[in-house]
Design goal:
The chain is of the alpha/beta class. It is built from 17 helices and ten strands. The strands form four sheets. Strands 4-3-5-6 form a four-stranded parallel β-sheet, with helices on both faces. It has a two-stranded antiparallel ribbon with strand order 1-2. Strands 7-8 form a two-stranded antiparallel sheet. α1 (11-36) runs antiparallel to α2 (45-65), α1 (11-36) packs antiparallel against α4 and α2 crosses α3. The two termini are 33 Å apart.
């Protein structure tokens, strides 16, 4: 894993992005050369470079927005082919808008066809090579886990269920005071010092995952390993790097104080606000026809009964309450007696049209107005109702910290976990929100916005 702008990214997938970017960047020049040969004049070179860069950026951004750089998709080749076809269709439409807006960048049909063919063949080859070697031990980090209890068992389960995790657990070293949950065949018999064992098994990183770290950590051996160049991390950092979450059951207050994250300076907040203003204005203009059609459909379905927009009190920045806007997707008076209720699977309060709106997250389009007004941001923890906030703050540690930033239309938790309908779900989602707070950056916001497109198209986590 490589930490880029405070966000952990798989080095293997970063290499994949770089090679595919190289294919896209060279596609137009190659197509021009094949089509026109030596007849390409120097006066076209500048426009050609600009068009090539725009094409590469559009292709990479579209591929990222459809989840083509996510580990969960790597072994599903049919899903990759389908999404790649959609990438070329969407990217072609975007490039058509670019050509219409800037005629000087226009590509002829022959060159455009050659560009697409070259890109398709090049990316197919890159992905074939990538899928053939990404799981080989040559590029995987070799881990030695200290511990064989509950924390170690979670690491083992995660490594089994994630084939493209980028690491391989070589074995576990059990503590004399632990109740081992790891298969005995996976536990290494200690017949030498820890540095010698790490050298013997060619270890890259040692993960400290004792259930009771205070009394079990062999300090001298750990320090010796570190002095000899072996990486040392704890289980909390392991899950932050590989699962993108901060495990609140493993967090110590001192870790929060001394960690290198949770820095929300005014400069980044200002840039984020400017992006919110620009993006929400553009999106409101683009989606205005869709929003008008949705409003008419709601009015027709309800035969004029009930409001088109639904207003609900939510908790925002610094605990301040505001009214969130949504297209009404439930029956009028869905909450009898005004009692707040969790949304559940197959909720009978949801209308037929509301079911469609919720699946594609279209019911949340009016929240662009909340973003424009400064009550929300495009990216951040989803805002909760005051009743739920009061309940969850009592049961989930550090829950109030989510109000250090503005709530968002989308967020890191929405990409990594399904719709929350219980306290346990809220606890898991909060672990992803804490990761966002700790590693907050414009770069992470950009990645989340790209991946939100996939969530909307494939109806992930909707309810």
């Amino acid at each position: 894993m490589i930490r880029l702008f405070r966000h952990y990214i798989s080095s293997a997938y970063l290499i994949l992005i770089l090679f595919e970017g190289l294919v896209y960047l060279t596609a137009i020049p190659v197509a021009y050369w094949v089509r026109l040969g030596m007849h390409l004049g120097w006066n076209n070179v500048f426009e050609l470079k600009i068009t090539s860069v725009i094409y590469a950026v559009v292709m990479l951004a579209t591929a990222a927005s459809l989840g083509l750089y996510q580990r969960s998709l790597s072994q599903n080749y049919s899903a990759q082919i389908l999404r790649m076809l959609i990438v070329f269709v969407l990217a072609s439409l975007i490039m058509a808008v670019v050509f219409y807006s800037f005629p000087g960048l226009f590509l002829g049909r022959g060159v455009l066809l050659g560009t697409i063919l070259y890109s398709a063949l090049g990316v197919t080859l890159v992905r074939y090579v990538f899928s053939s070697y990404v799981d080989t031990e040559a590029i995987q980090r070799r881990l030695l886990v200290l511990g064989a209890g509950e924390k170690a068992w979670e690491i083992e389960e995660y490594s089994k269920s994630n084939h493209h995790a980028g690491f391989k657990v070589i074995g576990y070293i059990a503590s004399a005071t632990e109740n081992p949950l790891i298969d005995q065949q996976r536990i290494i018999t200690v017949n030498n010092s820890l540095p010698k064992l790490a050298e013997q098994f060619d270890i890259d990183e040692v993960v400290i995952a004792y259930d009771d770290e205070r009394s079990q950590i062999p300090v001298d051996d750990i320090l010796a390993c570190k002095m000899e160049g072996f990486g040392i991390i704890d289980s909390l950092t392991f899950f932050e790097k590989h699962r993108g979450e901060i495990r609140i059951d493993m967090v110590r207050p001192s870790w929060l104080y001394f960690s290198d994250g949770f820095r929300l300076d005014n400069f980044i907040r200002t840039i984020k606000r400017l992006i919110d203003l620009l993006a929400s204005s553009v999106l409101l203009i683009l989606f205005l026809p869709v929003m008008i059609l949705i409003a008419l459909a709601i009015a027709l379905e309800s035969r004029g009964k009930g409001s088109i927009l639904y207003r609900q009190t939510r908790v925002g920045l610094a605990g301040q309450e505001f009214e969130i806007l949504k297209f009404r997707s439930m029956l009028p008076n869905a909450e009898q007696g005004g009692q707040a209720q969790w949304a559940i699977q197959n909720d009978n309060r949801i209308t037929a049209l509301g079911n469609i709106l919720r699946k594609y997250r279209l019911d949340e389009l009016p929240q662009l107005v909340n973003v424009l007004r400064g009550e929300m941001s495009l990216v951040g923890p989803r805002p909760e109702r005051p009743e739920f906030v009061e309940e969850l703050s009592k049961q989930i540690p550090y829950y109030v910290e989510r109000h250090q930033v503005k709530p968002g239309l989308t967020g890191w938790a929405q990409l990594n976990f399904s719709y929350g309908s219980s306290v346990d779900d809220a606890r898991i989602k909060h672990q992803y929100d804490l990761y966002y707070l700790k590693n907050y950056s414009i770069f992470l916001d950009f990645l989340i916005m790209l991946q939100t497109v996939e969530v909307m198209l494939w109806k992930k986590g909707s309810r």
